[in-house]
Amino acid sequence: MIPAGRAFFKMSGSGNDFVVIDARAQGAGSLERPEVIRTLAARGTGVGADGVVFLEASDAAHVRIRYFNADGTLASLCGNATLCATRLAVELGAAPAGGLTIETGAGVLGARIDGGIPEIDLAPIREVVERGPIEPVGHERRSGFVRAGVPHVTLLVPDVETVDVVGRGRPIRHDPGLRDGANANFVAPVADGRWRIRTYERGVEAETLACGTGAVASAILLTAWGEARGPVELVTRSGRTLRVRLRRDDSGAWLPSLAGEALVVFRGELAEVLGLSGVTDPDSGKAGA
After folding, report:
1. What angle (nearest 5°) sits at the alpha carbon of residue 29, between those of residues 25 and 34?
2. What is the DSSP letter of 203?
3. 126-134: which pairs have CB atoms within 8 A and are 24 or more residues apart?
4. Catalytic-residue membership of 78
5. Which of 228, 227, 229, 231 lies closest to 242, judged by CA?
6. Does residue 164 surpass a pLDDT of 70?
7. Which of 16, 34, 50, 284 has its CA 20 to 30 A from that of 209?
8. Cα–Cα distances in Å, from 258 out to 29, 68, 151, 163, 189?
């Protein structure tokens, strides 16, 4: 007999995909164990995802999210996961579409649904290095660093299609000059004024189809370098576009807003997959014996 299990949503933020669990009434329990996260995120044997998101109750905002990378590590922020959480919170009646707040590991963020598209306001970004710490090589024109909730290196290149994203991105992710590693983004201009972006993500340890905070970091650097003006639109590996609006406060900090697609791909129930990681009672979250 197939066991009934914990309900979940499979969501996609511009191709960045997630297992999202509504944990407002029933906590995550054993589901947040690293080995369970890795089991759920595994492609082919699990649900398959870039990460797992728990949507939770909050005393500081309409909802709280905790985001775990596919390798089981807890991340302070994921832009596309937060866009998906915005959409889901509204769909579940946990927050109003016109304006809501979401508690994250990077602080409480404002969000909204505008024209059917979720948009989030990130916390002020002050750690911006317009040159370095990674030196450009080969055809790379410029490089910079931004901590957009999580650390990012962005390199400006003539054509993202010619970049070995894994071969170049993995050494950057583990560069000893970066105190806690970094995601690696590669951006190139498009004739219509948009930008193409490809990203190697730490925690996933591979190229992903989209990265929200990578788009934010890249938009900030492109603007600081004088390469882009106004809202910056970045075409992700999935072909979907992420839009970044930028302002600066009196202290010079960047105030970004990120908008992009957030789709509910399907709803389901976790079943035998949890037995692979030792969880036998998914409804209660109790670990197996």
Report:
1. 135
2. T
3. 126/251, 126/252, 126/253, 126/254, 128/220, 128/221, 128/224, 128/254, 130/221, 130/224, 130/225, 133/175, 133/177, 133/178, 134/172, 134/175, 134/177
4. yes
5. 231
6. yes
7. 34
8. 31, 20, 17, 25, 19
Q: 79-91 and 212-224 helices cross at what angle (nearest 10)?
A: 120
Instruction: Identify any residues that bridge with 142 across adjacent strands, giving them in sequence order.
Output: 156
Question: Nearest-CA neighbor of 232 among 126, 136, 156, 162?
Answer: 156
Of the residues 182, 211, 270, 274, which is catalytic? 211
182-232 pLDDT, tens per residue?
999 999 999 999 999 999 999 899 999 999 999 999 999 999 999 999 899
Cα distances from 7 to residues 10, 31, 113, 206, 285, in angstroms, run 10, 12, 24, 28, 12
196 is written with which tokens? 């193409």
